Amino acid sequence: MTVYRLFDPNQIVPEGWLKKQLEIQAEGLMGNLDKVWPDVKDSAWVGGNRDGWERVPYWLDGFIPLAYLLRNGDMICRADRYVNGILDRQRPDGWICPCREEDIPNYDLWALLLIGKVLALYCEFTGSEKAEKALYRAMKNLKDLLDAGKVRLKNWGYYRWFEGLIPIEYLYRKYGEEWMLSLASALKEQGAKYESYTDRWIVPLNVWTMETHIVNLTMMLKTEAVEKALFGKSGVSAAAEDAILKKYNGTAVGLYTGDECLAGISNVQGTELCSVNELMYSLEWLYRVTGDEKWADRLETVAFNALPATFSDDMWTHQYLQMANQIECSYFPNKAIFRTNGGESNLFGLEPNYGCCTANGGQGWPKLAMNAFLREDESTVLLPVLMPASLHTVMNGKRVSLRVVTEYPFRHAAVIFADAEDGAEVILKLRVPGWAETVTVNGETLTGKKYLTLKIGAGKTKFDISYSAAPRMNNRPHGLKTVSWGPLVFALPRKAEWLKHEFVRNDVERKFPYCDYELKSEDEWRYGFCGEEFSVDFPESDDIPFSSTHPRVILKAKLAPTNWGYADGYTTVSDPFPKRCRKEGEAETKTLIPYGCAKLRVTEIPSLK
Asked: pTM, whole model, 2 decimals?
């Protein structure tokens, strides 16, 4: 019941800036957690004495696709070693999580649902018969335990029941056995009913609750998609729930505020890194299953803005929370500005605030790469988001290779090379982004297109594609504005001074390059827009795709100083909006850079009288 399907991920080869971004991740923290972080290195999942719940499965959820997409032999061996270590400890009855038998009735089943999803992902890359049989036995054991009343969904498992549908959907495609649908129905019956919580998403509270927890909610959005994929129908529309969440908690880069729970529309509330990755994963599911272009547009916005923003350039450190208007990242000496998170949540570090984002920080880029090409049917390939990558596959029995050469989203053009075997007849579809005013194909300019349909026959074919649109202003609450060009949102940056902190806490060492950092700046930030004219420029850049020092694209804009203060009670947080939007000096030409490049930034900016 899906509109589009993933290709065998082994047929996809990341190239260009996308490959470089994956390599940076592999060389950074997410590619080395098993070497430096006790909760992965010494996890109970592989016989150690540290965390035996979500952290190793979270890490593997990003590490497995990263290793295999890069064809990195060392990383593949390490991923295989962890997976086999988990499989070798599976009980004869199928129970796979690391706990004593007497503790199973009280075990939070969220970790079981998560490792099921990870094993399904591993099978997609490896075709491992051992892993598939282990997954089959684990899910069958879960059904038997639920049927016998020996376990029930509670705590995190209760609120994340739909994650279990992902491994079930994988198994059902393989085996088609009725008990699998029965298990999925049992999880739904026992799990949380989010449609009954929507009234709690309207007014943000300084209270921690599961039903307003940001990661639960971004995971929840894909329920419609996975239910349709499995049952052919779904209960609740993701669009309806998303509309409420966006209206009362939406951010300038397609997220919801959540620090840890929904936090309203203030531009100085935070959004948790886990929720960025999970929202991307939900949007990927929603687009593949529904075919609705708005989910792909949203995916571009989140992936090319919010995801890189919350990591350092080398990806050795990350934030727990990112803020749209983030003028400093430093310890809060007393009460943090955030509603439900602590005073170090916006630092860049090893595990600021909580370690869940340390474990779960790595799935965003690899899973996006897995969606570079989608299959509509046996003769149609779709490019949902332009990314530099190649595909080597078979369509209707004929070999077909596609290669996309592009700097998108930093440039709005691509060259697509096709090479097909004699007798091949392939349709190549390109989704035209919603922001594009025109699209040009081999010199012919078109308007009003949602998709381009290009025919590929035997031999070599080349397509030159470009999109056009001017920079545009977007409205935000309290009369503030943002500026975007294509899928990129731009911000006024502050040059950051990175203050290093090395220490040990709870037997976990922070040392360079995975120590903690405060980011401070002396740059002025209190400006407003003077007009709506912007020029686009492409300065000399380095090889870091979302470089904070050498961005690949910039905007020039006229801004003037304005009387803009600090949030009440703080000297490191901007007031969400100035009291008076008036010029307090002469207009100056300022450089705006992509939000994902600006670690200190002002994104929501007043338009001055």
From this structure: 0.98
